[in-house]
Amino acid sequence: MDDGAPRRAYSDTDLDAWVDEGLIGADQAASIRVWTDHHLALREPPSVPSSGPGPATLPNPVTASGRGRREDATGGRSSPGERLQQIAYYIGGFTIFFAFTFFVGLQWESLSGPARLAIVAGVMGGLVAIGATLRRAGALTGGNVLIFGATGMTPLLTYEALEILGIWGGGDHADTYPEFYRRIDGAWLTLEIVSVAVAVFVVGWVRFPLITLLIAFWTYYLSMDVAEALWRDGPSDTQRSMAFAVVGLAMVGLGLVLDHRGLRPYTRWFWLFGLAGAQGGLGALALQNDRDLLVGLGFLAVSVGWVVASVWLSATVFLVFGALGIYAYVGYLAFSVFDGALGFIFTLAAVGLFLVLTTFAYARVIGPWLDRTFRGERAEIA
Predict the structure, then answer these.
(1) CB 281, CB 252: distance < 8 Å
(2) Phi, psi (5° rounding) for residue 248?
(3) How many CB atoms neighbour CB 376 within 10 A?
(4) Which of 58, 67, 92, 257 is 20 to 30 A distant from 272 in Cα terms?
């Protein structure tokens, strides 16, 4: 029966175009084709999409599954009530996460080690079990955010298990777990590496992009602790900044790889925390070597590069961090190097003009050329 909803036609060519534009991933396009072939074999009603070159219609998200509506299962537009439901799910998941991370120090140490371990393991197991049940019932977001909350407790579980086993070495600032999110110490690397590994496994299981927030978040903390572990006698400020910048750039690179593979929803947090780490580390290096003009110009060039990348990737986060880096360095030049000299006005204007013209040239010439080049390569591979 026609419910009056608009029926949109698409073809395999459209799917390929959507992948090229980054609207869907290659895996998602393949899943759509598999779904189409399966339902055509079952001879379902004509509201099922066709896998051939001719036009067909997308299934109605309300009735396609035959088992009630699955939340956001097809990416269809949700109603205000459904959006409110999604918000409530996320608030609940983050409340659980915060309760056992930032606020765990409240009276936590008054419990015995075995009691703490039992509580954490029990809560995590219960959240995963309930989350899996909700997922099977079709409440994907509700189940996923509970699994997200459970995954966020991994550092605490690891810490308590190591303490019970008597193999937690600790450190100058790693004697109690509440210091994990407050103090830098190389001893925390064990917790961070284990937590990232568990989160990678979970995101592969549930395919929930928000889990990458935990991966990026713990990797960001790892970038601060790794220098303490590498240089036992204590890293210098330059060494600490370099470690911070390298890990940040690695996260940005990982996001670029995921984006190239059509997994844009999984890139957001890697880019956010990666850019924060990269700009923080590179900016600190520029200040620590303020007498070396090349270091400062290198930081400025990287910042301009982020702005150009924002056009290429259509990602605002690159524009934000690039602009902050440019303004921070220009402000440093204004008040520390030029000391209010008249020549600074023209220098600043030249930098701004260069940025505008570079962005324009990329948008009108370089960007379209790269798009045509890579699109042609993808077509040849296909």
Answers:
(1) no
(2) -60, -45
(3) 10
(4) 92
Instruction: Count the residues in the chain.
Output: 382
Record the pTM.
0.69
If you average pLDDT over residues 249-269, what whole number do you get? 92
What's the per-residue H, E or C state across the chain? CCCCCCCCEECHHHHHHHHHHCCCCHHHHHHHHHHHHHHHHCCCCCCCCCCCCCCEECCCCCCCCCCCCCCCCCCCCCCHHHHHHHHHHHHHHHHHHHHCCCCCCCCHHHCCHHHHHHHHHHHHHHHHHHHHHHHHCCCHHHHHHHHHHHHCCHHHHHHHHHHHHCCCCCCCCCCCHHHHHCCCCHHHHHHHHHHHHHHHHHHHHHCCCCHHHHHHHHHHHHHHHHHHHHCCCCCCHHHHHHHHHHHHHHHHHHHHHHHHCCCHHHCHHHHHHHHHHHHHHHHHHHHHCCCCHHHHHHHHHHHHHHHHHHHHHCCHHHHHHHHHHHHHHHHHHHHHHCCCCCHHHHHHHHHHHHHHHHHHHHHHHHHHHHHHHHHHHHHHHC
Place of tokens 């982020």: 306
Q: What backbone phi and psi angles, to 5 degrees, belong to 60?
A: -70, 125
pLDDT at 45 over 50: no
pLDDT digits (tens, 9 = 90+) for 185-221: 888 999 999 999 999 999 999 999 999 999 999 999 9
Query: At residue 40, does pLDDT exceed 70?
Result: no
Rounded CA-CA distance 9/72 in Å is: 20
Q: How far apart are CA 128 and CA 151, in angstroms?
A: 9
Number of CB atoms found within 10 A of residue 140's CB: 20
In terms of Cβ atoms closer than 10 Å to its own Cβ (0-12, 13-18, 19+), residue 287 is middle
Tokens of 107: 């009276």
Q: What is the pLDDT of residues 123-136, one digit of tens each?
A: 999 999 999 999 99
Structure tokens at 256: 């670029």
**Per-residue pLDDT reduced to its tens digit, 320-372:** 898 888 888 877 776 666 665 666 677 677 767 876 777 677 777 776 776 66
